[in-house]
């Protein structure tokens, strides 16, 4: 079920919201090793007061929350689950635009210019994806390259999502009943409500850690299988059981 923002989690009151143009929402669960790198790419705009960074933590035990606070982020605690965490972070946002960014994903150098350009049109937007790998030839390069195409099937959370707070709340945010593919589901609902997703220039870079752990071909094959099953109408519970069987 998507979240009703009119009833839960009132927004924080702050005078800084007058000048902030974007609230960056980062869901975390034991991301102490990755979060500082990602925040480093946002730090200049944080210092200028243009953005706030809200870390929505799902119960980390590795110091993620204390690191986030030390880096100047707003921190909120949430029941575990990426959709729940991102909804909870968004409920605390004070800016007119929301940018959902994973803790192990770093934005391009000109991300401010790119997002401000998208903001002038009010478009929902995302970046193409690249994986952080030094291998010259890898299937990961192919998988990243596919995100360059304007195809709804290639839209996932690692690419980040930029959306007006109004549009996000109008569709009820992330479906908290979904443990998988909640990002693709949101993009599909936003597309029906406010128009097709805009693909930005450049790319975000994300960690291939799950691919390294389970094997590139196997991991991608499972993602394709799960996505096709989702589009064929499989329940999220069924998808989750297959996911856990594959990845533990």
TrEMBL record:
It is found in: Cell membrane. Gene3D superfamilies: Spore Coat Polysaccharide Biosynthesis Protein SpsA, Chain A. It comes from the Bacteria. Residues 23-135 form the Glycosyltransferase 2-like domain. CDD domains: GT_2_like_a. Keywords: Cell membrane, Glycosyltransferase, Membrane, Transferase. InterPro entries: Glyco_trans_2-like, Nucleotide-diphossugar_trans, Trfase_2_rSAM/seldom_assoc. PANTHER family: GLYCOSYLTRANSFERASE (PTHR43646), GLYCOSYLTRANSFERASE 2-LIKE DOMAIN-CONTAINING PROTEIN (PTHR43646:SF2). This is RSAM/selenodomain-associated transferase 2. It comes from Neolewinella antarctica. The lineage of its organism: Bacteria, Pseudomonadati, Bacteroidota, Saprospiria, Saprospirales.
């Amino acid at each position: 079920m998507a979240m009703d923002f009119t009833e839960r989690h009132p927004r924080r009151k702050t005078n800084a919201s007058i000048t902030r143009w974007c609230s960056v929402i980062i869901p975390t669960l034991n991301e102490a090793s990755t979060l500082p790198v990602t925040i480093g790419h946002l730090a200049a705009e944080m210092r200028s007061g243009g953005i706030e960074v809200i870390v929505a933590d799902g119960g980390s035990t590795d110091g993620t929350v204390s690191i986030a606070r030390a880096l100047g982020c707003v921190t909120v605690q949430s029941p575990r689950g990426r959709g729940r965490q991102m909804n909870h972070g968004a409920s605390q946002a004070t800016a007119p635009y929301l940018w959902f960014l994973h803790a192990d994903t770093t934005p391009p150098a000109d991300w401010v210019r790119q997002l401000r350009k998208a903001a002038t049109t009010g478009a929902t937007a995302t970046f193409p994806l690249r994986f952080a790998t030094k291998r010259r030839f890898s299937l990961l390069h192919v998988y990243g390259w596919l995100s360059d195409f304007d195809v709804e099937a290639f839209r996932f959370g690692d690419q980040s999502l930029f959306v007006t707070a109004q549009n996000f709340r109008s569709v009820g945010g992330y479906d908290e009943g979904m443990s998988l593919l909640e990002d693709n589901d949101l993009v599909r609902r936003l597309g029906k409500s406010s128009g097709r997703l805009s693909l930005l220039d450049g790319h975000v870079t994300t960690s291939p850690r799950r691919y390294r752990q389970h094997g590139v071909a196997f991991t991608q094959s499972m993602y394709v299988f799960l996505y096709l099953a989702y589009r064929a109408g499989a329940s999220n519970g069924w998808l989750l059981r297959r996911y856990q069987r594959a990845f533990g």
